[in-house]
Every structure is written in structure tokens, then in C-alpha cells.
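Design request, C-alpha cells follow.
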């Protein structure tokens, strides 16, 4: 069954959402990241996708204290990404209690270093972020497009034992217009053992049911939460309760 993962994106210590990765189009929400994480846990979620957008822009982890606070005040398993560019960043994030780290731009720009980290820290602790636009991987907070094709990129890390791939279609992210379901189906067809984490475009329950029916294992839910187009209580009842099954 599909595993929904609520997201918190942070700029200057606040919960925000961007549209298509554009820092100039951010919407700031009132809830603090810690309070929001507690809400997710109270509803029954056990995993959190936490993104340091300041870190992604600054090229180093910035909001480490927010991670530490959430770890201290909840029992959520946290996927942390944004700004992880050095071994110092990795150690800080893992030592602060994150279960998984997401590596994006560096996996494109310096694959040799990332390969070393996979060997050192274990593939089970690393998510490779594959942010895609028009079939190519984007880097540096989605502001630059690389010349690396998405499937070549994913394949290079799957061959090294990576199972977690976070794929975000930038054109969909923050737009509440539906997910890139065909793209995710293609990824699962090529890499059926991949623990794909779909990201971008979820607007309501119908999107989650469609992903579930397509066999997509995980999905990040962001803006739909903050704009209240998705009832998280209903999501928890359907997808976190093993006695329930979503119906098309």
C-alpha cells in the first residue's frame, strides 16, 4: 500500500511552500515546524519529510536546530534534505537524529564522493534526490538544469545498492495540479525494487488513490496539507490503517 509522507519545508525557521521551486513565489504559513510535526504524529503518521530550503540555497545545512527540536519533541522518523554537501553536514544531520538523508545536487555534481558516502554510511540511510524537468535532472535548489537524463541518473545509483529515490517533477511541485503518474510508472517499470518516493502535485485523495493503484510505494504530501485541499485525518484512516483499503 502507498505510504504517505507529510512534508515540512523550512525558510528562516518557518513552514513554507514554493511553486515550481521558485524562491520568489514562496508562501509562508503560520504554524511552526515543530507544532506541525506534532500534529502529523498525533494523526498517526510516523514519518516526516523535512527540507531545509535555506540549506539548499546556501549550499550547507542551515536549519539543524529545527531538526533537533522535532527529534526531541516527537518520535517521527525523519527524512532530511537540503544543503547536504559535506561529510560534516551528513554527520550533523545523522547525529541530530535523522533516519535518512537526501542527497540531490551533489549526487549529480560529484558522484564519486557520494559513492564513497554510500559505502561509508550505507545505502539504507541515503535517499538520492532526482529533481526532474523535461526529462533532465535539476540541481542547486532546482535553479539549474544539468545535462544528465533522469533514467541514467537513477540507474547509476540503483546499481550501487540505493533503493530510496525521491523524484520530484518540478513543473508539478506546489501547483496542486495532479502528479506525474506516468513518469512514476515508468520508474517503477524500470526499477521494480526501488522504494520510489513520488513528490509534487498532490491535490487530493484521488491523487493518492491513483498512485496507490499504480503500485507507487511512497508519496510526499506538501502544499495540499497547508492549503487544506486534503484531509489528513482521512488520509491516515485509509492509508495508515491496515484494515482499510483505498477504493478507486
Amino acid at each position: 500500500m502507498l505510504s504517505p509522507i507529510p512534508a515540512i519545508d523550512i525558510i528562516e525557521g518557518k513552514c513554507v511552500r514554493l511553486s515550481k521551486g521558485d524562491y520568489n513565489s514562496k508562501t509562508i504559513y503560520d504554524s511552526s515546524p515543530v507544532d506541525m510535526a506534532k500534529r502529523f504524529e498525533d494523526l498517526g503518521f510516523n514519518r516526516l519529510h523535512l527540507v531545509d530550503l535555506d540549506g539548499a540555497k546556501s549550499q550547507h545545512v542551515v536549519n539543524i536546530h529545527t531538526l533537533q527540536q522535532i527529534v526531541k519533541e516527537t518520535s517521527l522518523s525523519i527524512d532530511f534534505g537540503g544543503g547536504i554537501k559535506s561529510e560534516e553536514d551528513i554527520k550533523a544531520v545523522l547525529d541530530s537524529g535523522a533516519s535518512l538523508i537526501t542527497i540531490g545536487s551533489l549526487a549529480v555534481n560529484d558522484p564519486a564522493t557520494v559513492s564513497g558516502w554510500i559505502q561509508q554510511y550505507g545505502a539504507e540511510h541515503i535517499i538520492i534526490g532526482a529533481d526532474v524537468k523535461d526529462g533532465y535532472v535539476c540541481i542547486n535548489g532546482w535553479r539549474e538544469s544539468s545535462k544528465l537524463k533522469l533514467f541514467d541518473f537513477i540507474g547509476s545509483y540503483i546499481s550501487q545498492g540505493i533503493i530510496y529515490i525521491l523524484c520530484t517533477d518540478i513543473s508539478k511541485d506546489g501547483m496542486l495540479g495532479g502528479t506525474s503518474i506516468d513518469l512514476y510508472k515508468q520508474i517503477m517499470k524500470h526499477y521494480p525494487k526501488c522504494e520510489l518516493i513520488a513528490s509534487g502535485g498532490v491535490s487530493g485523495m484521488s491523487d493518492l488513490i491513483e498512485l496507490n493503484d499504480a503500485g507507487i510505494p511512497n508519496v510526499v504530501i506538501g502544499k495540499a496539507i497547508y492549503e487544506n485541499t486534503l484531509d489528513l485525518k482521512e488520509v491516515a484512516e485509509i492509508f495508515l490503517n491496515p484494515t482499510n483499503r483505498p477504493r478507486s
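Comment from the thread starter after seeing the answer: thanks! The radius of gyration is 17 Å.
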